[in-house]
Amino acid sequence: MPRPKRPAWKKPSLTPPAPREFWPCGKYRVSLAKSVNGVIANLTEPVGFNAVALANTSLPAENRAELVAFQKKVGALARSVNAASEEVEALGQKIKSFKAAAKSLTKGGEEIAAEIRSVEKKIKEIGIKLYGDSTLLKIDKDAEPGIVDRINTAVYDQWRSTSAATESQKQTLEIVAAEFSPVWEALKQVAEVDIRRIEKKLDELGAPSTPGRLPDWKR
């Protein structure tokens, strides 16, 4: 597995990079399969193996189990942040389709369009928390790094690390977890409540179809 480049704070792109993940030492299973015309066939049964650290470090952790537990926490948080990042991008695409559908309505279009803009604002605010405020960068002002950048730094610091986690690294993980918790809840509210409410209203108003929305059709 290639070593990731050290993350550097920069202006977020239109599609910000997802957080990196890493695999700490521990027990794993591997198998071999082939894919022919989309059909996957197993060639071998899964075989377990144990990945261990090489005994060639200058500052090995005194408590290896504690280090592995910390690295697993970092990995679990990174996966959740990665999922949130992908969901924000997907919701942004849904908002675009909602706007297009609302424009075709002859009745109720302005009301639903205002609601769509309100939810879009929520998604953008979540995006700022995840990726940082690119508006400040445009006017050459310092901006706090977003959650994605912070978790990438935490992953990088633990990438192939065999030394005990420092107090600074532990504090960084706690900061990221504390910042991410309300963002995660806000994102679930948008995805599970706000978006579904808009889809229901679009259906009731007879708006054109949008990705992921099935009309309540009855014969």
Please summarize what this structure is.
The chain contains five helices and four strands; from the N terminus they run ββββααααα. It is mostly helical and 219 residues long.
How would you sum up this structure, described in words?
The protein is flat and about 70 Å long. Mean pLDDT is 81; it is low at 1-20. It has a domain at 62-204. Helix 1 packs parallel to helix 5 (167-204), helix 2 (109-131) runs antiparallel to helix 5 and helix 4 (147-158) crosses helix 5. It has five helices and four strands; from the N terminus they run E-E-E-E-H-H-H-H-H. The longest helix has 40 residues, at 64-103. The protein has helices spanning 64-103, 109-131, 134-138, 147-158, 167-204; strands at 26-30, 33-36, 39-42, 47-51. The protein has a two-stranded antiparallel sheet with strand order 1-4. The protein has a two-stranded antiparallel sheet with strand order 2-3. It has 219 residues and is mainly α. The N and C termini lie far apart (54 Å).
